[in-house]
Amino acid sequence: MFGKATLLETIAGKNRGILATANDQQAILAAIAQLEDRNPTPEPLQALDLLDGNWRLLYTTSQELLRIDLIPFFKLGQIYQYIRASTAQIYNIAEIYGLPYLEGFVSVAARFEPQSQRRVKVNFERSILGLQRLVNYQSPEAFIQQVEAGQKFPAIDFQINQQDQKGWLEITYLDEDLRIGRGNEGNVFVLTKAK
């Protein structure tokens, strides 16, 4: 019998998927599928109080994210996703560590549009890449507040062209502290509510 504890145990020590072998991936995907079958919130877009908040990535199959760890001299730190349901906004932040004084981050701001009770279309709007020290990065929460206030940063900070964006995310499991989603490129994301 699979459950949350089984999934969390299966992904433990896999560094968000970076260290997962092919066999690990099969076991993790099986545990995810079993949990999705018992989703306590079949219409997650009606449960905005559960969806809203700050989430930390536990596991993904997204090579786009995991490849950040392959940059020489750098390691992927924590990855956060902040959902502001009342304004239909999403903020993704990936912290990057490595050489002293060169800790960095990659952030993407987006808006979402409901497409069904489980699926949202994601429209990426702004990307910010930079060094944590140059933007006075203290925490993901403080950084998001600065972004929401419209602050410009001494970093690579640009608007994203919204033409031809086809990104979507389907929320396949949601409870008070765990969320599973599947994206349009076939990627799986497992997140826990950040404390």
Structural description of this entry:
The protein has helices spanning 4-11, 22-36, 48-51, 63-66, 140-148, and strands at residues 53-60, 74-84, 89-98, 104-114, 119-131, 156-159, 168-174, 178-183, 188-193. It is of the alpha+beta class and 195 residues long. It has a single domain (42-193), classed as Lipocalin (Beta Barrel), CATH 2.40.128. The chain has an eight-stranded antiparallel barrel with strand order 1-2-3-4-5-7-8-9. A hairpin with a 4-residue loop joins β2 (74-84) and β3 (89-98). The mean pLDDT is 89.
Summed up:
Helix content is 21%, strand content 39%.
Tell me the layout of helices and strands.
Elements: H1 4-11, H2 22-36, H3 48-51, E1 53-60, H4 63-66, E2 74-84, E3 89-98, E4 104-114, E5 119-131, H5 140-148, E6 156-159, E7 168-174, E8 178-183, E9 188-193
Antiparallel strand pairs: 1-2, 1-9, 2-3, 3-4, 4-5, 5-6, 5-7, 7-8, 8-9
Helix pairs in contact: 1-2
End-to-end separation: 28 Å
> How many β-strands, per DSSP?
9
* Order of helical and strand elements: HHHEHEEEEHEEEE
* Rg for CA atoms: 17 Å
DSSP helical segment count: 5
CATH topology: Lipocalin
Give the strand content.
35-45%
Domain count: 1
Query: What's the architecture, going by CATH?
Result: Beta Barrel
Oligomer: single chain
Task: Give the proportion of residues in helices.
Answer: 10-25%
Biggest sheet overview? 8 strands, antiparallel, barrel
Task: Give the spatial strand order of the biggest sheet.
Answer: 1-2-3-4-5-7-8-9
Structural class: alpha+beta
Flag low-confidence runs: none
The residue-averaged pLDDT reads: 89
How does the overall form come out from the CA principal axes?
A: globular
Q: Would you state the CATH class?
A: Mainly Beta
